């Protein structure tokens, strides 16, 4: 096992497309790092440069002690798992898994031992004699994983390995990859456009956009403290509600809970259309720099699970934390319900109407679309509830 370090890595394709721009990224020894971002953001290019399947235009890539910029792919000692699995159709499972070891001319008993061990780990023992066409998608995917495991490489590089599977299988295989990589403690760089995969698999997640790295952080930190609007909107499903507003100084005593924020210069409110929301004192204490934005336009982000129907909510709403809204659309997922609402506004400003989604527990009564959805409570606090 080794660490994988990218320093100022860039890729400009011959047609002038800059796919990756000054990428600095370090995957620690034994770490599972997920590279995530929308289609075309450069994540596959980045992975292929680490694998040696794509030349790099700028920077350095180091695997373990070695700078590999000029090392051919086959000598980098990394194993790649592709979206397409890239199995040999004429070879059975045993020979597909052992293929790399035969190329390296390992002794036959050693190959047999490693292949059988991998097949046991992946639940493929009964299928060793089958050809890829006789296998299901999930089984093929496991053969591709097996082929990577037996090589005992310095690092795994995985490019959307689950995207060809149906939703149910994808969840199963995701858990299997998590278990397997944890067991093996193998350094893994994993590319996906699926933020749920990224959040559930990654020790850390690196978010890319248009070739540029936006943020690298453990999943929860990414969720709680996105560094910019792109990360805020990309991570989380349903997505964070983002509103344009303006910060104001609160009228005396408003927006400041007793004892908190005392001596910090009073509360702050945020104007959203014709409605006003208090900036929670805890947030202000945590981010005193917000005061500098009084009188300026801001974007307010509220996660759907932090908005509650005031009528259903047991605790009284904190001061200044109510929003008037109307139900627009209700989507039931079985275990949760997403309610899209519009912030209520006089007709004159309906152009400013915002949409938001509210998570309601399954046991809660589902509101009818079209009915006035009176008030929403916005609750701010640590995400431990
Ligand atoms: P996806 O999730 O769709 O696979 P990605 O994030 O992996 O996307 P890349 O495949 O790395 O993105 O592509 C990054 C950018 O580089 C895109 O704009 C793409 O069109 C461009 N690109 C990729 N391969 C080439 C190539 N061989 N020649 C020119 N441009 C390319």
TrEMBL record:
Residue ranges annotated for the ABC transporter domain, each copy included: 4-235
Keywords associated with the record: ATP-binding, Nucleotide-binding, Transport
InterPro entries found in the cross-reference section: AAA+_ATPase, ABC_transporter-like_ATP-bd, ABC_transporter-like_CS, ABC_transpr_MalK-like, ABC_transpr_MalK/UgpC-like, Mo/tungstate-bd_C_term_dom, NA-bd_OB-fold, OB_MalK-like
SMART domains the record matches: AAA
GO function term, MF aspect, one: ATP binding
SUPFAM superfamilies for this protein: MOP-like, P-loop containing nucleoside triphosphate hydrolases
Organism domain of life: Bacteria
CDD domains per record: ABC_MalK_N
Name the record gives this protein: Sn-glycerol-3-phosphate ABC transporter ATP-binding protein UgpC
UniProt gene name: ugpC
């Amino acid at each position: 096992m080794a660490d994988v370090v990218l320093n100022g890595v860039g890729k400009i394709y011959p047609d002038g497309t800059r796919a990756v721009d000054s990428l600095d990224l370090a995957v620690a020894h034994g770490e599972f790092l997920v590279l995530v971002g929308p289609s075309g953001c450069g994540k596959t290019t980045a992975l292929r440069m680490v694998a040696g399947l794509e030349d790099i235009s700028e920077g350095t890539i180091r695997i373990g002690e070695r700078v590999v910029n000029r090392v051919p792919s086959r000598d980098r000692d990394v194993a790649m798992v592709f979206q397409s699995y890239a199995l040999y159709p004429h070879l059975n499972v045993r020979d597909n898994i052992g293929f790399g070891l035969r190329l390296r001319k390992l002794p036959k008993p050693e190959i047999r031992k490693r292949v059988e061990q991998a097949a046991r780990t992946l639940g493929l023992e009964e299928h060793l004699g089958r050809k890829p066409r006789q296998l299901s998608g999930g089984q093929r995917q496991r053969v591709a994983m097996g082929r990577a495991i037996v090589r005992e490489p310095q690092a795994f590089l995985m490019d959307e390995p689950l995207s060809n599977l149906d939703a149910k299988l994808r969840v199963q295989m995701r858990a299997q990859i998590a278990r397997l990589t944890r067991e093996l403690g193998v350094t893994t760089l994993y590319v996906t456009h699926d933020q749920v995969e990224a959040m559930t698999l990654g020790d850390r997640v690196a978010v890319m956009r248009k070739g540029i790295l936006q943020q690298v952080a453990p999943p929860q930190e990414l969720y709680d403290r996105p560094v910019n609007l792109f990360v805020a909107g990309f991570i989380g499903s349903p997505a964070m509600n983002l509103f344009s507003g303006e910060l104001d100084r609160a009228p005396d005593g408003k927006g400041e809970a007793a004892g908190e924020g005392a001596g910090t210069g009073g509360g702050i409110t945020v104007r959203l259309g014709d409605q006003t929301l208090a900036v929670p004192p805890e947030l202000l204490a945590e981010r005193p720099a917000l005061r500098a934005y009084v009188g300026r336009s801001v974007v307010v982000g509220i996660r759907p699970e932090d908005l509650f129907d005031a009528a259903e909510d047991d605790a009284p709403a904190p001061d200044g934390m109510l929003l008037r809204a109307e139900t627009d659309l209700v989507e039931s997922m079985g275990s949760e319900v997403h309610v899209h609402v519009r912030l209520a506004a006089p007709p004159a400003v309906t152009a400013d109407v915002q949409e938001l989604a509210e998570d309601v527990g399954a046991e809660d009564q589902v509101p009818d679309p079209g009915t006035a959805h009176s008030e929403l409570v916005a609750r701010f606090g640590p995400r431990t509830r």
